[in-house]
Amino acid sequence: MSDNTRTEKDPLGTLEVPADALYGVQTLRAVQNFPISGLRPLPAFIDATVRIKRAAALTHRETGRLDPKIADAIVKAADEVLAGKHREHFVVDVYQAGAGTSHNMNVNEVLANRANEILGGKRGAYSPVHPNDHVNMAQSTNDVIPTAIRLACLSELGGLEKAFEGLAKEFGKKGKEFDEVLKSGRTHLQDAMPIRLGQELDAYAGSLRRGLKRVVEAADYLRDLGIGGSAVGTGVNVEPEYPKLMVKHLRESAKVELREGKDRIQLMQSMGDVAGFSSQLRVLALDLSKIASDLRLLASGPRTGLDEIRLPAVQPGSSIMPGKVNPSIPEMVNQVCFQVFGNDACVSVAAEHGQLELNVMMPVIAHNVLFSMMILRNSARVFAEKTVKGIEANDEQCRYWLERSAALATALAPQIGYARAAEISKQSVKENVLIRDLVKREKVLPDKEIDEVLDLRKMTEIGVPGGKHGGGSAG
C-alpha cells in the first residue's frame, strides 16, 4: 500500500485500489478484466441503478430492516450522484461479465464509500456501510439490472417524445407553408401523378407521429418491474412488502408511471419487452432515415439534380470543389439510423441468448437500447432545427418538372382509355413534347376540355379529372 492506493480484499484476494476512488476492489477487478471498448455506462443507466439503491434504502428504512442512519447516508450519497456528482467513478466497460454484476457492484461500492464518508468513515473501510450487506440489501444483479434497463428507458422516453414531436411539428408547418406548391410525384424514381410539396412534407410528419406512437405503446410493457425477484425471480431474502414499496419509491424518484410486476420469474427470464421496445425504435428510425434520404433527393443538384427544395447550408461541402454545399444534416441522420438498425440487431440476438432463469447479456442490451434512444433524440432535434425549419421550396423548378411529367397522361385515361393514354405518354417522351401541347396538337380532346382534364391542382385531390367518366372510346 502507498499514499496513492489503499488495500482492499474480496473473495479472490487483495488489490491496490486508487486511494481517491469511490469504487472498490470488485470494480477494479472488472476494469482489469474488461479493457474492451473504453465505453462507460451511459448516464441514464447509472441514474436508474442509483435510483434502485436509493429506493431500497428508503424501503428498508420503512420496514425497519436497515438502520435509519445507514439508510439516510445511502440516500444522501445517491442524491449526490443523481445531482451529477461522482460520475467519474462509474468506470466499468460496457462489455463486461454477464448480467451486469460488475456494474451493479460498481454502484454498490461508490454509494457505500460515499455513505461512509458522510458518516465520518473512510473510503475502503466499508463500515458501517457495506456495499453488499447494506446498499445491495434484498437485491441481486439479476433483478436490479432488468429493472434498471426498464427504468432508464422510461426515464429517457420523454426526451425522445419531445424531440420527435418537435420534428413532426416542423414538417407540419412546412406542409402548410408549401401547400400550394405543385410538383411531380415519383414512384420507382419515375414520373408519377402530381402532388403538392406540402402534402409530401405533411405526410412525413404523419409517419413520424405514427412511429412515435408505436414506441410509446411498446414502452408501456416496460412499466412492469420485477424488482424483488432477487436471484431467480422467487424473491428469496426479500421481505413481502419490498416489491410494492420499491415501485412506490421509484415512481416518486423517477417521476414515471410504474407497476409491480405480476410474474417476477417471467420478467427475469425474458428480455422480450425490451427487445420489443428496441424494435419499435428501429421502425421509427426506418421512417426517419427514409425521410432524410427523400430530402437529399429533392434537394439534389443544384444544376444536375431535382432541385425542388433548398436545404439550409450548415458547412462547406467539399475540400476540393469550391462552393459545393452538401445535405450534411440529413446525411448525419441516415448514419444515426443505420447505427440504430445495428443496435436493434444486437438487442435481438442478446435477448434470444438468455438461458433458463436469467439473460446474462443484459449489459449489451442496456447499452444498445439506451444508445439508440440518445442518438435518435439528438438527431431528431438537430434535424428539426438545422434542416427542416429552414427548407425552402423551389416553386419554379417544381413546376418545370411537373409540366414535363409523362405521368400526366393518366388524367386522360377516364376520357380516352388506358391504351390511348399510354400511347400519348410514350409519344410525349419520344418527341420531348409536353403532354398538354401534344393533346392539343393531336386534338385528343376538345380544346375546352383539355384545361379541365389537365388541371394540375385538381389532380392532387381525390376525384376524376374533368369530372366525367369517359367510356374509353374517344380518340
Description:
It is a single chain. The chain is mainly alpha-helical. It folds into three domains: 133 residues, Fumarase/aspartase (N-terminal domain) (Fumarase C, Chain B, domain 1); 253 residues, Fumarase C, Chain A, domain 2, CATH 1.20.200; 64 residues, Fumarase/aspartase (C-terminal domain) (Ribonucleotide Reductase Protein R1, domain 1, Orthogonal Bundle). Helices cover 56% and strands 7% of the residues. The protein is built from 17 helices and eight strands. The strands form four sheets. Strands 1-2 form a two-stranded antiparallel sheet. A hairpin with a 2-residue loop joins strand 1 and strand 2. It is elongated, with a radius of gyration of 31 Å. The termini are far apart.
Key terms:
Ribonucleotide Reductase Protein R1, domain 1, 17 helices, Fumarase C, Chain B, domain 1, Fumarase C, Chain A, domain 2, 7% strand, 475 residues, mainly alpha, 3 domains
Strand and helix map with partners:
Blueprint: E1 5-10, E2 13-18, H1 25-33, H2 43-63, H3 68-82, H4 101-118, H5 131-135, H6 141-177, E3 182-187, E4 190-196, H7 197-219, E5 224-225, H8 242-254, E6 259-260, H9 264-269, H10 272-298, E7 309-310, H11 328-352, H12 362-386, E8 392-393, H13 395-403, H14 413-416, H15 418-431, H16 435-441, H17 447-453
Parallel strand pairs: 5-6
Antiparallel strand pairs: 1-2, 3-4, 7-8
Helix pairs in contact: 2-3, 2-4, 2-6, 2-8, 3-4, 6-7, 6-12, 7-10, 10-11, 10-12, 11-12
